[in-house]
Amino acid sequence: MTQEKGTISIHTENIFPIIKKFLYSDNEIFLRELVSNAVDATQKVKRLASLGQYNGELGELQVEVAFDENAKTITISDNGLGMTADEIKKYINQIAFSGATEFMEKFKEAKDANEIIGRFGLGFYSAFMVADRVEIQTLSYQEGAEPAHWTCDGSTEFEIGEGTRTTRGTDVILHINAESEEFLSKYKLQEILDKYAKFLPVPIKFGTNTEQEPDGEDADGKPKTKDVEVDNIINDTNPIWTKQPSELKDEDYLNFYKELYPFSEEPLFWIHLNVDYPFNLTGVLYFPKVKNDFEMTKNKIKLFSRQVFITDEVKDIVPEFLMLLHGVIDSPDIPLNVSRSFLQADSNVKKINSYITKKVADKLSDLFKADRAAYEEKWSDIGLFVKYGIISEEKFYDKAKDFVLLTSTEDKKNYTLNEYKDKVADAQTDKDGQLIYIYTNDPAKQDAFIQSANKKGYDVLLMNSPIDNHFISHLEQKLEKTSLKRVDADVADKLIKKDDAPAHILTEEQSGQVKTIFDSAINKPAFKVELESLNPDELPVTVTMDEFMRRMKDMAAMGGGMGFYGNMPDNYKVVVNGNHKLITRILQTEDTAEQSRLAKQAFDLALLSQGLLTGADLTEFVNRSVSMI
């Protein structure tokens, strides 16, 4: 073979600076690209042999990664197809050409040839992110082929000539540049291989390990061992998502979960994905114990393409609410950009998105129907997930409305939406026919309000997850003639408007006098005093915030797009129960100072019940209480 020089065929004067700066988001993926190419070449020769297109000995098919710290090289070797000099010119020098195109055309009649796609081209040139010179030593599988050697220094010029390889396959040798010498480390390379190549379908060798094997017996008849060097194979070539569910036991799924997330609690349950039409998708999705820490659990789904790790940012593939799941998705139909790091939304992605949503909803529905008691035991863990799905995905709501649960603070039981409506409809429908659900987000803090509601025969729901404000608003949109009010949004008599309101016992003049006394005693513009005729057994004074305003402020605090309300000052309603005996006592007291003191004491008690009494006001209240004992 004659030595030949030439220039790489590209459509821009120098593509290498572009590759280094723009096309790849992370320079460590050079190893992923080159190992993936080697795996593809290995799978191709195996496929050709199965089709009768290659009759030679396959041998032990594997890819090897090696490095030489002194020579400053990293070598990726395979015993796959190899290339001729002409193929190098075609597949390597013509950057935009994919070697898979011709290969797929030739073998398109093969039943599953679609599973093999070559990735020559730009992926190969990721090598120049870390190397200032790259060599290829290769020998094609074709009978009579001669070994070829290609080298390039990162410019558009290359040399190609006779190679030294004597066996089928390819060596890609990277001469690492000064800025990238961190990669000349066993630990660094092992870390990258563990990340990207952990489940590749061809064995990946990286150095050796020392193991002990039996070595006869010593003079006393005790067994001896000796150290032996064995290949360090870093990957599992047949992970569980490539198998049929019928082949697997619960133990297999749990062991795989521990392998992916060694420091996590066991998952609640899982879904095995396996579909080949109208798109290809396999994987296993696990339901973790999320509780209220859902932000910390995101980005735990790993995306693979033919067992090559791509990314754990799968928001374009997986609906937002499913980001709470853990596990693996593998699909060759997901379009990837040149670096495979960012996903592009297209019709296949949308189909996959919808399919996963349906599978998750079906799984939860099946669990609920098959064993409701077991489902309810898990509700504290999966409730947040289900509510998140209902809020963010319309198709999920259509199914989830039958298995989302509402929890009563009174009997601690869980109810479906229809069950809860039947439970409270008689007592909690107002005079206009509106059904009112009452809830608490802090049972301990709002206990006095809960007890007042219970006395009137009202049930109070527990709504204390981080997203319940949004969930509540969503329910109001979905449930006919239904609204939700927090139990401390008003006094119990006013939470649900009825026609049987207690009669006033104060005259109009007395009402005005009481309002003046409380306005003067409170003397805070943010607190608006209103006199109401309530049950005499209710508290003398109650401080509330309007349900709408408080909900908007809570959403703003969560970053829910309600910033306008979040910036507004807090305003409260001070409801004075004109029918309470304390109000009568205040009116009967002739000492205006004593009137003010009693009014302030009742107001401070109301603030205390809401956790609003702090600082100097709290100290003053304590001192006043002591003096009144």
Automatic annotation (TrEMBL):
Gene3D superfamilies: 3.30.230.80, 3.40.50.11260, Heat shock protein 90, C-terminal domain (1.20.120.790), Histidine kinase-like ATPase, C-terminal domain (3.30.565.10). SMART domains: HATPase_c (SM00387). The keyword Plastid does not apply. GO terms for molecular function: ATP binding; ATP hydrolysis activity; ATP-dependent protein folding chaperone; unfolded protein binding. Residues 26-180 form the Histidine kinase/HSP90-like ATPase domain. InterPro entries: HATPase_C_sf, HATPase_dom, HSP90_C, Hsp90_fam, Hsp90_N, Ribosomal_Su5_D2-typ_SF. ATP binds at E33, N37, D78, M83, S98, G99, T170, R340. Keywords: ATP-binding, Chaperone, Cytoplasm, Nucleotide-binding, Stress response. Pfam families: HATPase_c_3, HSP90. SUPFAM superfamilies: ATPase domain of HSP90 chaperone/DNA topoisomerase II/histidine kinase, HSP90 C-terminal domain, Ribosomal protein S5 domain 2-like. Belongs to the heat shock protein 90 family. This is Chaperone protein HtpG. It comes from Mucilaginibacter mali.
